[in-house]
Design a protein that fits this description.
737 residues, alpha+beta, Immunoglobulin-like, TIM Barrel, Jelly Rolls, 3 domains, eight-stranded antiparallel beta sheet, 14 helices, 38 strands, 21% helix, 28% strand
């Protein structure tokens, strides 16, 4: 899971800022000015899946990139076989300065196949933007309203087929869907749903069991240890599955996601045996739908090796596992199967897993490097499975993966289309058939993943391939099941399930309009000034304006204002300000960051107050903060490189001016107008597409600066020492008076 929850839950991208379609656009330019006029921000279907011979809506968001109102002509161009239901395929649109407009059309496709649409934005006969959209349609089906989802008809499978279930999609965490704004082809058939709705669980159960997926392995997150059990992301089980109408049709088990040390594990054996295990037994193991083989519940553990530290040694972990098994026998079971996650071939690690007393090893996913082709991704997984088996150290339960991208498209990106996935399933089935008959590995298979939309691996029906992956599973493991019909919620007059997300996007659109307001402060505009955040708005305002006039305002995320060196300041106690990604935030060859900070907390070890260096881009961007008690400025060239620390600690108890400059050759750091460090760093600034975080390393992160932050300025040039000195004195002298 690669710390995905710890980071991704806080990664918020304003709805509509990013989309794959927008990336494919051909931005137009004004012949007179050479500047961008109008950009297509998104051009997408409304639904996750669309049926032929039924009206389907398509929307586009277009943005005026200039400081003056414009009038353009928008035209949707349809291919043969697609007709307009609404006749206004062409329209004249007026857009205010730095504003957006949403366009919507209703169309209908004749056949179930993919069609190429095109949106053109014109002005005075010239094409400003031309954006393609390949839109797929599935088989036609008449709408027949029903009172509820028809009861599932499970198919019989050759072995027990399960799928990891990633339960991150809660109504109060809509930002978890942010990655799909870059990958709209991943849009689920349910839309950007809220998982705690029992109807959502019933749709997933119906789709799963009718295609041969017998059980889900829910990621299970503890929220704090050493006391009564509290959970994160528990709604998929407790609010949805266990309250759903079809709960008796679907089996489930849990994977203890214990990677967040000190928060998601156990404080000691007493915590394990008196708090955690009884909770699992009472809430899950005893449930008739929980997966039990040989009358033994199955418990998957994501990082079993972390229990060595939690419990005080390997022997104590093994003893605790035996105690857990005995407790399950006391509760009426015949024991407990404990499976540990590992996706490598290190014999020493596998031997440690055996010493810990694990019954089996399994993989959550297979990370295949170097952006492999489908054929190579299949071969790599099969090779890994066979080598694990040949080592003979600890038996395995096989997992096969459909795709991978990571939350920020980092490292490697690959996908196995449904037809090739069918090949992988068949090869896995053949491997399993050769396992010893007395092992779990011969009786079950794990699929990665049902719904990990953010990391890019998923099997549930979605926009790009519809029910393709589920049909592949059904054909391989339940091939004699006969014909079937795949229903969507709108086929029976149900849904939608994305109400919470729609409210979120409406709120973000309101905030977008606020942050893009043009604001100026005395002294702006200034040569090379990209942005100036002074935090001088009313303390109740949800935004921090950009006083350079460049409209790069930000959104307060659990942050507050207080008295600053000039007007208000940002109170840095865990909150932050998010500046949404803009190309302007990536100066190519030079930059300056300057700001005023104040703290009473000496010796801060690794805290940040301006940051654009994140996982997935650790060789990009820039940041400023405090390391080992000293101001630190970084423009990395390789992963986490070029940390320039000042040669003296950050003073406490007063306002301090800090600045970092980079001229394409050398980084320099300044305190109160004087240089206190330099470092060679030749070459351009590596750009990224991340947001900029003020007051913290990342939204909601523990590595936040403790103190006050004010008058943050970002330039696309290296200020001279004289300019830095003059900027310091200008405000310092005013405060002194």
């Amino acid at each position: 899971m690669f710390q995905r929850v710890l980071v991704a839950v806080y990664t918020i991208i304003l709805a509509g800022f990013l989309s794959q379609s927008a990336a494919a656009a051909e931005p137009g330019h004004s012949a007179a000015s050479g500047q961008s006029v109008v950009t297509v921000r998104s051009f997408l279907p409304v639904r996750g899946l669309n049926r032929a011979q039924r009206p389907s809506e398509v929307t586009a968001t277009i943005e005026n990139m200039t400081d003056a109102a414009v009038t353009v002509d928008a035209r949707l161009i349809l291919p043969d076989g697609v007709k307009a239901v609404s006749l206004d395929l062409a329209s004249t649109v007026e857009i205010g300065d730095q504003d957006r407009k949403e366009l919507k059309w209703s169309i209908e496709a004749q056949e179930a196949k993919a069609y190429d649409l095109r949106l053109e934005i014109r002005q005075g006969g010239a094409v400003l933007s031309a954006v393609p959209l390949t839109m797929s349609f599935i088989a036609p089906l008449a709408v027949q309203k029903q009172p509820y989802i028809p009861e599932p008809t499970p198919v019989k499978t050759d072995i027990l087929v399960g799928a990891h279930n990633c339960p991150l999609w809660e109504a109060d965490k809509p930002a978890m869907w942010s990655q799909l704004l870059k990958h709209p082809e991943r849009t689920p058939a349910l839309g950007f749903y809220a998982q705690e709705n029992p109807e959502v669980a019933d749709w997933e159960t119906k789709w799963a069991v009718e295609h041969g997926v017998d059980y889900f392995i829910y990621c299970w997150y503890r929220a704090g240890q050493g006391g009564p059990v509290k959970m994160n992301f528990g709604s998929a089980i407790h609010d949805a599955l266990l309250k759903s109408k079809f709960v008796d049709k679907m089996k489930f088990t849990i994977m203890w996601e214990n990677q967040s040390r000190g928060n998601a594990g156990v404080s000691d054996e007493n915590d394990l045996m008196q708090n955690l295990l009884p909770f699992w037994i009472d809430n899950y193991f005893r449930h008739p739908s929980y997966v039990k083989i040989d009358n033994k519940p199955l418990l998957f553990i994501y990082r079993p090796e972390f229990l060595i530290e939690d419990l005080g040694g390997e022997e104590k972990v093994a003893a605790a596992f035996d105690t857990m098994r005995q407790a399950c026998k006391t509760a009426g079971f015949d024991g407990l199967y404990i499976l540990g996650e590992y996706r490598g071939l290190d014999p020493d690690h596998l031997k440690q897993m055996k010493r810990l007393g694990l019954d089996y090893t399994f993989a959550y996913c297979w990370y295949v490097p170097d952006n492999p082709t489908p054929e190579k991704a299949i071969a790599a997984q099969v090779d890994q499975i066979n080598k694990t088996q040949s080592l003979g150290i600890i038996p395995q339960v096989v997992t096969v993966s459909q795709a991978w991208s990571g939350w920020n498209d980092e490292g490697t990106i690959w996908k196995i289309p449904p037809a090739d996935f069918k090949t992988l399933l068949r090869r896995a089935k053949d491997i399993i058939a050769a396992f010893p008959a007395n092992e779990l590995g011969s009786k079950m298979l794990i699929l990665d993943n049902w719904n990990e939309w953010g990391e890019g691996h998923y099997l549930a029906p979605y926009r790009e391939y519809g029910f393709g992956y589920l049909d592949a599973i059904r054909e391989v493991f339940a091939k004699n099941s006969g014909p079937h019909t795949d229903l969507l919620p709108e086929d029976i007059g149900m849904g939608p399930y994305d109400t919470a997300y729609r409210a979120f996007t409406e709120r973000n659109e309101q905030l977008r309009k606020q942050v893009s307001k043009k604001a100026l402060k005395a002294g702006a505009p200034e040569d090379g000034l990209i942005a100036w955040w002074a935090f001088d708005e009313d303390e109740k305002d949800a935004v921090a304006l950009d006083y350079s006039g460049n409209r790069l305002g930000g959104i307060l995320r659990d942050a507050k204002r207080t008295n600053g060196i000039d007007g208000n300041a940002l109170l840095c106690d865990g909150g932050s300000v998010e500046i949404v990604n803009s190309p302007r935030l990536s100066p190519p060859t030079a930059l300056t960051i300057e700001c005023w900070v104040k703290t009473d907390d000496a010796g801060q070890a690794n805290t940040w107050f301006v940051n654009r260096v994140f996982g997935g881009g650790t060789s990009t961007g820039y940041r400023m903060g405090v390391v080992d008690g000293k101001p630190c400025f970084e423009v990395p060239q390789t992963d986490w490189s070029h940390h320039l620390k000042a040669d003296l600690p950050l003073p406490t108890g007063r306002w301090v001016h800090t600045a970092g400059t980079f001229d394409g050759k050398v980084e320099r750091i300044y305190i109160d107008g004087e240089e206190h460090g330099a470092m060679d760093r030749p070459g351009p600034i590596n750009p990224n597409t991340f947001h900029l975080c003020l007051g913290n390393f990342e939204i909601g992160h523990a590595a936040h600066f403790s103190g006050l932050l004010d008058e943050v300025k970002l330039y696309d040039r290296a200020l001279t020492p004289a300019e830095i000195r003059e900027h310091y004195r200008r405000l310092a002298d005013r405060v002194a008076k």
